[in-house]
Request: fold
Amino acid sequence: MVMAMMLGAVLLGVAAACAVVLVSRGMTGSHLSRNHVLFFSGAIFITLVVCVHLTPSFSSVSDYVTSVSTVAVFDRRSPCLNLVNRISWAVTPNNSLINFNATKNLSSSFDYYERHWDWPKTQKVKACRIRKFSKPDASRFLNGSWVVIAGDSQARLFTLSLLNLILGPESQRMDSARTALFKRHSNYSISVNEIGMKLDFVWAPYVLNLTHLVADFKDKKSYPGVMVMGAGLWHMLHLNNASDYESVLRTLKGSVVSLFPFSTELASKSPHLFWLGFPVLINGMLNSHDKRQQMSDAVWHAYDRALSESRLLRQTGGPLDLLDIPALTWNCGAHCTYDGMHYDIAIYEAALQIMLNFIIKSRQRH
Ligand SMILES: *[C@@H]1O[C@H](CO)[C@@H](O)[C@H](O)[C@H]1NC(C)=O
Ligand SMILES: *[C@@H]1O[C@H](CO)[C@@H](O)[C@H](O)[C@H]1NC(C)=O
Ligand SMILES: *[C@@H]1O[C@H](CO)[C@@H](O)[C@H](O)[C@H]1NC(C)=O
Ligand SMILES: *[C@@H]1O[C@H](CO)[C@@H](O)[C@H](O)[C@H]1NC(C)=O
Ligand SMILES: *[C@@H]1O[C@H](CO)[C@@H](O)[C@H](O)[C@H]1NC(C)=O
Ligand SMILES: *[C@@H]1O[C@H](CO)[C@@H](O)[C@H](O)[C@H]1NC(C)=O
Ligand SMILES: *[C@@H]1O[C@H](CO)[C@@H](O)[C@H](O)[C@H]1NC(C)=O
Reply:
């Protein structure tokens, strides 16, 4: 059974990779570019690895035939928590793609795709009342809370998606928030007075920066109700040493556990702690020689293993819940990234909605 599923996933992955190549061939009517070949081999490789590490299951919704939903680990706390992570993508080219100049690379076709996601419309999902939070929903839910998001550029994109939801993407406040948030290598803070919410984004490209931040909360004896962390890409690029990454993650874990000793038990009053996982890296699309060299698939997997072995995540007995960016980016696919590393905001909107549902589900249990 498991073998059959794995085989199914491999075939599907190969078919998807072939479809990408065939589409691009159809467009050019000529031979494959180097990028497509790189993507092709990358896709098969990732497919194989994903099959080994994750348990694939197929969405029963015919609208989303192109996507595969994956869930890393079964969550024993509640069956609803498992469903929260299972979303499906529909990634479709828009009408103008026909005019796309195919001598350009995959990155430059990014703007021609529309990306939609949803939970499968099953009875179980309905029964668990899993839903997309609207602006008023989210405002009510986050009323009076202190949210801290700390990490690298992924954490910044996650912050952007939260601000989009709370302030509205077209609002004037959002324009100025966006400008301030994207100042290079800076922190950002905002108080949304009408809902008494305070949001801090802390630029923390290394895990060590996160450890210091947590130690700071401990000194000040005050900490946020919701905290989202994630760092690793800088370490991968500049230090490129997975065993060192594992050891800094262990230190972070120690620091989190000593600040929130109760948080391994879900209680309604305990803070909600999340980890933003690594995005899938598409080597052929990375925008510098150093990145393509250092951030290979093998290194990605070594870092992913380091994360499991550090036992930082709840699924390995640690204090943080994973926001499964690996599964989200994998399922959305190569047309969802413009540089093989940073993905469309839709990925982070989905991660945000998963987080909100996750918090509500874990509160309801008490
Ligand atoms: C496609 O793009 C290339 C390089 O950007 C350019 O030289 C070529 O003229 C373009 N072809 C068409 C049909 O626009
Ligand atoms: C498709 O995407 C391109 C690039 O962003 C955009 O210029 C064009 O207006 C879009 N076309 C449609 C029909 O949405
Ligand atoms: C937030 O909470 C305050 C006080 O509890 C309340 O007065 C206010 O109406 C709430 N705002 C929203 C948007 O729910
Ligand atoms: C951002 O905030 C952290 C934690 O408060 C602090 O350690 C760091 O120096 C700040 N960074 C900048 C660039 O101000
Ligand atoms: C993050 O940590 C690195 C390595 O320890 C350090 O060089 C850098 O100054 C720190 N950055 C911030 C913003 O704290
Ligand atoms: C990697 O990090 C470990 C632990 O910090 C260290 O012992 C080892 O020497 C490092 N390896 C390299 C090649 O730098
Ligand atoms: C793809 O094309 C864009 C501009 O069209 C360019 O900036 C980028 O470096 C190219 N990427 C690769 C991997 O060649």
User: Anything to note?
Assistant: Strands lie at 55-58, 68-71, 88-93, 113-118, 146-151, 188-192, 197-203, 226-230, 272-276, 321-323. Residues 203, 206, 208-209 surround 2-acetamido-2-deoxy-beta-D-glucopyranose (ligand 5) (CB under 6 Å). The longest helix spans residues 2-28.
